[in-house]
Amino acid sequence: MSTPFPQSYHRILLANLVAQVAIIVTGGLVRLTGSGLGCPTWPECVPGSYVPVREQAEGIHKVIEFGNRTLTGLVGLIAILAVVVVWRWAPVRRLKVAAAAVLVGVVVQAVLGGVTVLTELHPVTVAAHFLVSAGLVATAAYLWFARHETDGPPVLLVPALVRRVAWLTTAVAAVVLTLGTVVTGSGPHSGDADAPARFGFDPRTISWLHADAVMLFIGLVVAVWLATRLSSAPVSVGAAWRGVLVVTLAQGAIGYVQYLTDLPEVLVLAHMLGAATLVVALANGLVSLRKIAQD
């Protein structure tokens, strides 16, 4: 018999996931407002002060960037609490490893954020910053969706081939996200309104390459969803992959509209939120493919 989980266990793991998604959104706000160098140094905001000072020339940008740095501290605190409750209540080693990975990842993100500032928002470091965040969202989402699991052996709810295609779909999603950062690093929103650093690629060419990868991804998502519907899998499995499909189509629609309307900031921010939501949906889809046998 497994020990019932307290409400604090569920609430902290949910807060852990929400915080990881939120830091992507606020990071996007920093970039879209040109506030990436609102605090021009790291770990201090300006030389001699860890907080913005009145004499700074960065104006409102210093407040936005410092706010994002402050949120990173809150994200770290929640990650620590997640480690505590998982190690206290979860009987599964993989959940404990995932919780620890999120905490380590938050530390890595803080350092990478500093490197991003010190390299004056080089697009490689900006892209890495986002992709690490996407990985943390995936891990935090796994913790949330798998939080009830016991230490029994896993049982596949779909044929092995369907599971392999689902993992291939996830790998293609990683390619889509990576290409998305290259599109971003080639477009107008660099994070610094005064001295934008760009990859130098043709934005139109990179955008269409990204769109081609999205088309492949959509096809694979449809294939997995149909396979779950046609197999003997529980209804919940098909529902999880239908959710992946809905988020994918919504994200694709936002992407095309923002491209055709010259990348308005509000749609770019919505696209970043959509990317984080897609990662969450994919984690749910993967977890739904198996259940853990009870001892």
Question: What does it look like?
Answer:
This protein has 295 residues and is an all-alpha fold. The chain has one domain (7-292). The protein contains eight helices and two strands, in the order ααααβααααβ. It has helices at 7-32, 60-89, 93-118, 123-145, 160-184, 203-230, 235-260, 265-288, and strands spanning 154-156, 290-292. Helix 1 (7-32) runs antiparallel to helix 2 (60-89) and helix 7 (235-260) packs antiparallel against helix 8 (265-288). The model has no long low-confidence stretch (mean pLDDT 88).
Write a short abstract of this structure:
Helix content is 71%, strand content 2%. With 295 residues, the protein is mainly α.
Any descriptors?
two-stranded antiparallel sheet, single chain, mainly alpha, 295 residues
Strand share of the residues? under 5%
> In angstroms, what is the radius of gyration?
20 Å
Amount of helix = over 70%
**Number of folding domains?**
1
Oligomer: single chain
Sheet of most strands:
2 strands, antiparallel
Q: Which runs of at least 5 residues are low in confidence (pLDDT < 50)?
A: none
**Quick one: how many beta strands?**
2
* Derived structural class: mainly alpha
Number of helices: 8
Distance between the termini: 8 Å
**Integer average pLDDT:** 88
The 3D shape can be described as flat
Structural topology:
Layout: H1 7-32, H2 60-89, H3 93-118, H4 123-145, E1 154-156, H5 160-184, H6 203-230, H7 235-260, H8 265-288, E2 290-292
Antiparallel strand pairs: 1-2
Helix pairs in contact: 1-2, 1-4, 1-8, 2-3, 3-4, 4-5, 4-8, 5-6, 5-8, 6-7, 7-8
